[in-house]
């Protein structure tokens, strides 16, 4: 056998080995590595880049592709220009004049002089990817024929490992225009604007029970959501200090009265005692006022209900033994049949809501049941909520029977109808305006 025939057999054996290695790949990652590395011994290329849907998926001699690397950007830009010129469907040598000046400059700096584009086509004969191969010497007609055949094998192997049909590099221009027109018309469709916000069922017209004095809560005599009647004892303050103050005030009043009585008896014979009577009488009145005030504070140490209802508060243990100041809120007396919805709408989600706007409540305890409500009031000024978020307070009235007071959930508020484009892009546009001022 002569030398040329032996060399041809060796090249053909290497070619068959490349096909077998491609078909033997267990997954797309292993196949991608084989596509950019295994053919180097046969074709002698310096660079090989695998592109799928216009993006570099693998590079020869590199274990992981850096998306922002200059060579990656160059190959993707060159493939995009081939696509724009309709040259991506044919396997062949890439002519530098097909590319713009910047891409040609990057080619000279980053890649070899001779490049070959090997497209991958699916069963519909549409390109979904390809290989960019580059080396110093020109590509012979025999090598181009082998690469064209190898491209069919590589495309078949890649499609066999894909669970779904990959994105194609190119759609017909007419289809793209039709899709763009459909999307543009779709963005003009009117839809009802809506937002979600946390909400809580709160008493309507409840009576706030506040601390009548500065002191320490000694004992809670009711439990959360317990029914009470007017006059029922709700809680007691620690009255040790108050009793002591009342006793001291009582004794001080007795001393002042005794001193006034003694001076009154001596006033007939003693001019000085007679002159002190007005002062001592005023002191008696002062001590009597101090005693009455101490008794009043002692009487306030027991807090009673002023109306019928239920006691609305979180936990008695939270207050027991805690010092409180006058006017500090302790609990609320509410009618269980009278409730409203309190909503905390974050500032970033605020939309234009008209009075009487529709509100739907979905409770955390019953997310499948919808409670209808109507917007009654909305605050003009945002405040910091318990979660530390700046939000507007909104109040809504229930259309039917109100849920139990204290339940929490998510409220959906409905606004006016707006184009679908504004509905989808409202938050991004607001963020863009805040960042760049447009």
* Biggest beta-sheet profile: 6 strands, antiparallel, barrel
> Roughly what is the average pLDDT, rounded to an integer?
83
- The proportion of residues in beta strands is 25-35%
Shape: elongated
Q: Percent of residues in helical segments?
A: 25-40%
Tell how many strands the DSSP assignment holds: 20
Number of helices: 12
Number of domains: 4
Which structural class do you get from the secondary structure elements?
alpha+beta
Catalogue the unreliable spans: none
Q: The CATH topology of the largest domain, please?
A: Beta-Lactamase
The strand order across the widest sheet is 6-15-19-17-16-20
What's the CATH first level of the largest domain? Answer: Alpha Beta
**Reported CATH architecture of the largest domain:** 2-Layer Sandwich
How widely separated are the two ends? 78 Å
Rg, alpha carbons: 43 Å
CATH superfamily of the largest domain: GAF domain
Blueprint of the fold:
Layout: H1 3-23, H2 28-37, H3 40-43, E1 47-52, E2 55-59, H4 70-84, E3 92-93, H5 101-110, E4 114-121, E5 127-135, H6 141-160, H7 173-187, E6 190-203, E7 207-210, E8 215-220, E9 227-228, E10 233-237, H8 240-266, H9 271-275, H10 277-300, E11 302-304, E12 309-312, H11 316-319, E13 323-324, E14 329-334, E15 339-346, E16 358-363, E17 370-378, E18 383-384, E19 390-398, E20 408-419, H12 420-436
